[in-house]
Amino acid sequence: MSARLARRPWKRAAAWLVFLGPLFYATYGFANWWATTRAHVPSMAFGWERQIPFWPWTIFPYWTINVFYALSLFLARSRHTLDRHALRLVTATLVACTCFILWPLHFSFGQPPVDGAPAFLFNALRGFDQPFNQAPSLHIALAVILWDWYRQFIRPLWARLVLHVWAFAICASVLTTWQHHFIDIPTGALLGLFCVWLWPLERAVSMPRAWRVTRDPQRWKLAGFYAVGAALFLAAALYGGGIALWLAWPAASLALVALNYVGFGARGFQMDGQGRMGWAARWLFAPYRLGAAVNAWLWTRKLPASVEVVPGVRLGRRPTRAEWLAAGRPRLVSLCAELQLPSGVPHARCVPLL
């Protein structure tokens, strides 16, 4: 145990912390200052949000993210995972602060007076925070990244439950401390998912290194269709407002699909060799995957599940588990990059292709 601890990249973790701390306060502070120079900073809130209670004690889980943020760097077992985790934190900070500068928003109603122990933390928060820097919530993005980081170290079921409750408490506290409006939460979660997807902890190639611009005109054509679809969904979200803002999720999903066809390739879907997709990719591409599943069903619903093309080899659609069992439990080889193989199928292999 002591030898393994000695091999951990302590100095590199300290160096990352020395870099990340000033980066956060410099970029976050600049975005706050920039918002104060604007003649008008809009707000985006729903009427029902005024019914959310103000619970001063939830400032405690709100602040715990700072401790878990700093501690996370020193838990890395290798330089590779440390660098990937730190790059997730860097990406979340830079993307969020860029959004704060390009379209600043402000929290539309002030906090009531606070007494007792929570007052100290609220005063400390107001020392560097202003009612700006709203969407996407950097707090939520970091909570998603840290949740994914810590769960790799936790095995007991009860400890995982504690982790889930802690992450939920941090995310809920941005509302009950009146720091953020609701729109900041899903946009922050989307940013966190993007960072997890962009920098996988496994020994896989990161998305930036996987980028290769395609020379295939058919891929460019398909990328164009998906980009137009993304733009239409985004326009509908912004024009419709309210519940229509959820259409920004399929807009982001289709935009990433377009990027897969342009440069990321099948790697962008992060399907492993057993036909299972990484959790962040599953959520990022969920609207597209739903459409792909419906499309596949429409095309193949009247066709047999598979046909024998040569003795012992059958070609067909992605089977359900029942169809796989009815076929005699054959070995499956999937060429699908977007849709997972059914769970519980042993010896399945996936060679994902666009």
Automatic annotation (TrEMBL):
Q: State the superkingdom.
A: Bacteria
UniProt-recorded name of the protein: Phosphatase
Asked if the keyword Transmembrane belongs to this entry, the reply reads yes
Ranges annotated as spanning the membrane: 12-34, 54-74, 86-105, 132-150, 157-176, 182-201, 222-240, 246-266
Please tell me whether the keyword Transmembrane is annotated for this protein.
yes
| UniProt keyword terms in alphabetical order | Membrane, Transmembrane, Transmembrane helix
The organism is Variovorax paradoxus
